[in-house]
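Observation: inputs received (chain + adenosine-5'-triphosphate).
Thought: call the complex predictor directly.
Action: predict_structure
Action Input:
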Amino acid sequence: MAASIPAPLRNLLFVLNPVSGDISKVELESSITAYCTERGRKARFYHTTGQNDLKNLRHHLQQHAYDAVFAAGGDGTVSLVAEALLNGLVPLGILPLGSGNGLSKDLGIPQDPREALKLTWQHQIHAIDTLQINGRFAAHLADLGFNALIVERFDQGDTRGPGAYVRIATQEYLSYAPATYQVETEHEQWEGPAFMLTIANARTFGSNVIINPDSHLDDGEFEVCLIEPFPGTAAPGILYNLYTAGFDASEYTRRLRGRQVRIRVPGATQVLCQIDGEPCQLTTPIEVKIRPRSLRVLVPESAVL
Ligand SMILES: Nc1ncnc2c1ncn2[C@@H]1O[C@H](COP(=O)(O)OP(=O)(O)OP(=O)(O)O)[C@@H](O)[C@H]1O
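Observation:
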């Protein structure tokens, strides 16, 4: 992946989600300010509210000039800031504060937010692909099927963290009824029932599940990763594969690749989806398109994407 040698980023905006992570945002703001001031950078802060954040952030970015905008929050905040910066020259930085932090992991960004602050003065800038899913923005991973259901239940629940996610997944697994999908790329077609179907721009979920090994964020294509219904006896092997970059090793998994994909769900006009960790309903057929190299991102100097 080609990287450009960046000019120093002096004027920085930090978009903070006050409710993500269990770190004090007051302390975080003062440590960011101190860190930036020591290095001749100017830090400003923008707080999300959970209401009209995209529209309001876009308006703010039209009124002010920044050299980089950092998302300080979980996957939802990262996706929000990424969408606001889409197709522009200003790069996205990430201070991971959520429970998953998927895109930051795929970009090789340190998971300690104070370590990630180094990106303000030591970084490479890369341009990565993003996706358009029924007109909605996606930077990382989206799902139909089982994982979308778990993300929705998790979102509705009071408890956070990996433990809550595993508990919900275990409860839902026993009664889950897979839907049938028809997937059509510009190269091939596939039809059948699927336990889950991941629309993958990236490689790894925040849970460290590697759903799309050997993929690249700037290759101008994305993958549809399918896990077909499997007997309980196959579950440990599939799980092992998912944590060891062996997605393709199972007879119950397959991947399709393309720049444009249409997904039909016979009998359903609306389906539950999760996009970058946020649940939503999508009208069928679902149309997915790649936006090649449409987002500039800050990554550590040592990162290999
Ligand atoms: N001030 C706020 N009050 C309530 N909700 C907010 C506020 N700001 C943002 N949100 C909501 O927070 C969600 C995004 O959260 P985010 O993903 O950043 O953190 P998280 O859920 O803790 O992390 P993760 O997605 O990694 O689990 C969005 O649904 C957004 O609408």
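Thought: report the result.
Final Answer: The chain has two domains: 11-129+294-299, 136-292. Residues 17-21, 48-50, 73-77, 98-101, 206, 277-278 surround adenosine-5'-triphosphate (CB under 6 Å).
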